[in-house]
């Protein structure tokens, strides 16, 4: 360690910014997959077929009752193994090495999907059912009804929850540093340990997260104004 | 699934210590954090502008950065600078300042203060001003208006949200295992390292957390029902978990 004592913020600026990019990448990917999982979960919860409903309720209730860090560690160990035994069951021989990046994204998306399920369920239920009946009366197909009526009508209700979840997700990405994945906070930890300026580097890491969350707030504010266009202002 | 290690008193004591620490940590930072939250809310509404801006900036910073980063910042960052203060090492505070529990409680208290402060601030602003004016007209002092009218009415409005905040607090406790404090996750890690069983200890504490979440939700529901002026149970929104 003595060798690196003279290193400072400048030497680590590159790797830390690189880490920030990785953090954004996994957050964006996990968010996209989480959105899909959330839509699937919400449709399952709202379906009339009992087993499907129960699966979705179990998924969102269990995931939301267990601490994120614990889930991330559990899935980090269990995920690749479950994936490989699933492949085995399908008749695929040999195991696939799953990279840290894929694990991090998968785990965060799985957690995100559970919370997203609740957000979407609530905002779909808030659509006046007359609007859906009108779509049926006009002979919309199910897909057309979903794309033209359900999505635009639910977005204004869902967006505040979605923006909250995005902020939580950015902050949750720091948790994957615990399983040794190299993102912003992991790099900051290495920088802090090798230069011994813990205060400085953790403050820098915090500041970068703050920039990301404040920036996202601005973008989500714009998106919310866009999806609320034509509605009376609250 | 092999749970035979559960019979060993050695592992039981780890789990028990982690469980008790978790409860104490949630209790301490929940109570202190809610106190801090009321202070933050009041300062943002009533304090002179510079102070209000300062509090606003502080809570925004806390709410915009990961809890894990804050924990490391206080434990390693601030904790690393402390021995540099002359005389502190010899003082009576040193044993406290070396204890990870102190940093965990500090970080969580500030976090609860910032998140719940925002909730309480919103609720305080939505108490009709006529009620506060009526209190003043009846001759209550400003302080009496605050703690007989304003706070109870505000807390009435945001109690379900505060329930959610308390559950979030409970669920952030495993983070302290990263600063070498004995909690349930730390106990599970020790058991995993010694028995080479990966899933069983983790699944066990996942179960414990689910149970704790349910108990905490139930306890908060009781408080919600007992709170003066609570709405009738039947019309209450059913809310098992936050989110």
- How many independent structural domains of chain A? 1
List low-confidence stretches of chain A: none
Largest interface between protein chains, with number of residues from each side = A-B, 43 and 41 residues
Total helical segments of chain B? 9
Give the SSE string of chain A: HHHHHHHH
What is the overall silhouette of chain A? flat
- Mean pLDDT level of chain B: 88
The CATH superfamily of chain B is MetI-like
Folded structure, characterized:
The complex is a heterodimer of chains A (234) and B (243). With 234 residues, chain A is mainly α. Chain A has a single domain, classed as MetI-like (MetI-like fold, Orthogonal Bundle), CATH 1.10.3720.10. Chain A is 79% helix and 0% strand. Chain A has helices spanning 9-46, 50-65, 68-89, 100-125, 129-137, 142-172, 184-195, 198-227. In chain A, α4 packs across α6, α6 (142-172) runs antiparallel to α8 (198-227) and α7 packs antiparallel against α8. The model of chain A has no long low-confidence stretch (mean pLDDT 87). The model of chain B has no long low-confidence stretch (mean pLDDT 88). The longest helix of chain B has 38 residues, at 9-46. In chain B, 35% of the residues are buried. In chain B, α6 (129-137) packs across α7. Chain B has one domain: MetI-like (MetI-like fold), CATH 1.10.3720. Chain B is mainly α and 243 residues long. Chain B is globular. The two termini of chain B are 32 Å apart. Chain A binds chain B through residues 61-62, 64-71, 73-74, 77-78, 115, 118-119, 167, 170-175, 177-178, 185, 188-189, 192, 196, 198-203, 205-206, 209-210, 213-214, and chain B through 60-61, 63-70, 72-73, 76-81, 170-175, 177-178, 185, 198-199, 202-203, 205-206, 209-210, 213-214, 240-243.
């Amino acid at each position: 360690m003595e060798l690196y004592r003279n290193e400072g913020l400048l030497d680590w600026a590159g790797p830390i910014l690189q880490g920030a990019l990785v953090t954004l990448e996994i957050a964006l990917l996990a968010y996209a997959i989480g959105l899909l999982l959330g839509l699937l979960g919400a449709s399952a919860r709202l379906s009339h077929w009992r087993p499907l409903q129960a699966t979705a309720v179990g998924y969102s209730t269990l995931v939301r009752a267990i601490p994120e860090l614990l889930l991330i560690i559990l899935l980090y160990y269990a995920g690749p193994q479950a994936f490989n035994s699933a492949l085995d069951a399908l008749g695929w021989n040999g195991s696939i090495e799953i990279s840290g990046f894929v694990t991090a994204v998968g785990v965060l998306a799985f957690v995100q999907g559970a919370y997203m399920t609740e957000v979407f369920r609530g905002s779909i239920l808030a659509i006046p059912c007359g609007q859906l009946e009108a779509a049926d009366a006009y002979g919309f197909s199910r897909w057309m009804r979903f794309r033209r009526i359900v999505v635009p009508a639910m977005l204004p209700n869902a967006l505040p929850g979605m923006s909250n979840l995005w902020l939580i997700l950015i902050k949750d990405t720091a948790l994957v540093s615990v399983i040794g994945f190299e993102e912003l906070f992991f790099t900051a930890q290495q920088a802090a340990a090798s230069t011994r300026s813990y205060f400085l580097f953790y403050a820098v890491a915090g500041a970068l997260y703050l920039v990301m969350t404040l920036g996202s707030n601005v973008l989500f504010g714009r998106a919310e104004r866009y999806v609320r266009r034509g509605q009376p202002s609250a | 699934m092999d749970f035979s290690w559960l019979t060993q008193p050695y592992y039981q004591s780890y789990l028990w210590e982690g469980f008790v620490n978790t409860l104490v940590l949630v209790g301490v930072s929940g109570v202190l954090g809610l106190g801090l939250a009321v202070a933050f809310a009041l300062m943002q509404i009533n304090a002179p502008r510079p102070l209000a801006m300062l509090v606003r900036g502080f809570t925004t910073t806390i709410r915009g950065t990961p809890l894990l980063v804050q924990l490391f910042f206080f434990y390693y960052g601030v904790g690393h600078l402390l021995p540099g203060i002359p005389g502190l090492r010899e003082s009576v505070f040193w044993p406290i300042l070396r204890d990870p529990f102190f940093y965990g409680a500090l970080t969580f208290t500030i976090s609860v203060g910032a998140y719940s402060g925002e909730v309480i601030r919103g609720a305080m602003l939505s108490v009709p001003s006529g009620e506060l004016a009526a209190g003043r007209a009846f001759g209550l002092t400003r302080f009496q208006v605050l703690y007989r009218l304003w706070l109870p009415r505000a807390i009435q409005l945001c109690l379900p949200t505060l329930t959610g905040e308390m559950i979030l607090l409970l669920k952030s406790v495993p983070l302290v295992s990263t600063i070498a404090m004995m909690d349930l996750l730390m106990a599970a890690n020790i058991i995993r390292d010694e028995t080479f069983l990966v899933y069983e200890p983790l699944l066990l504490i996942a179960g414990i957390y689910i149970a704790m979440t349910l108990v905490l939700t139930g306890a908060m529901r009781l408080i919600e029902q007992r709170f003066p002026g609570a709405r009738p149970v039947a019309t209450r929104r059913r809310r098992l978990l936050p989110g």
